[in-house]
Task: structure prediction
Amino acid sequence: MQTIIGKNIDKAIRLLEEGKIIAIPTETVYGLAANALNEEAVIKIFEAKNRPAFNPLIVHIKSWDDAGLYAQHIPAIAHQLAKALSPGPITFLLSKKDIIPDLVTAGSALVAIRVPNHPLTLSLLSRLAFPLAAPSANEFGYISPTLASHVLDSLEGKIEYILDGEAASVGLESTIIGFDENEQVIVHRVGGVSIEEIEEITGFPVKMAGKTEENKPTSSGQLKSHYAPKTELYIGDIAELAKKFEGKKMVSINFQQTYELNNVQQFVLSETASLSEASKNLFHTMRQIDKLDADIILAEIFPDNGLGKAINDRLSRAQAIYK
Ligand code: TXA
Ligand code: MG
Result:
């Protein structure tokens, strides 16, 4: 199968209506999309990604007004957050209606719902009679794609079309939240909306999700090794790590500045120390670095606030695989 990259929405609509899978742009990362109401179409997503079937998919809708079509009960606080943050990088876990196939939620009674904030994909969704189930458009476990070319690198020959929406403006996956019996917000995955923003809107502190009783992660974002480059990655003080690994071919991911080290090729994510710029550049830089044939990647610890928390989360998952 030949994979084509283009900006033809009519073609994207036709393929999706035929029950095919295509890659779509979002402001967070590119998604691998299918008609969420069609099980046969959704199965193709799992096959193309080599994704285990126990791992549920996010359902993308055109407007928060549609959430009630797919969710049984929507807590008032979810409406409040969606009003402030949707369309945007936030996903809500809500009790599902029967119209959503069990395959999409991997058997869970909860469905993950998000309104992506990308003009091409919003216009696509508004012309479709169904919502789109979509995980990130990468092979399972690898770094999420923030450019159409990243999708091609992972899925060439496995899908017919990649709808090209240029570089993702946020660059990190959505923040996933659920609600406890008291309708308090539980964060399942940190992402493009910061915890501070959520707390500011609700006026209450969030809870961080733990693992379920069987020690099964409730979100693959919680699997320890995920978002991982193929090259080994170590997090810490770059100068110290460079000394420890002397003699190895090293590259590094730095926040705002380079250090005086002549044995490390250094990549700065934001010269102006902007965490949103750093987020936007993180996955692209990880992919670039992964092609350099280095022995190891060194990564700095980012400030642990705002989007820095999500950056640190992704870096630590990228490291976990080697521990
Ligand atoms: O920004 C994003 O969220 C991107 C774009 C494409 O929307 N999507 C994304 O999808 O990152 P994915 O599948 O790579 O990660 C979604 C996470 C998974 O870890 C999955 O386990 C969790 O959402 N999830 C989806 N449905 C769920 C459900 N019903 N209950 C619990 N977790 C769920
Ligand atoms: Mg993913």
User: Anything to note?
Assistant: The mean pLDDT is 94. The first helix runs from residue 9 to 17. Residues 114 and 166 are 20 Å apart (CA to CA).
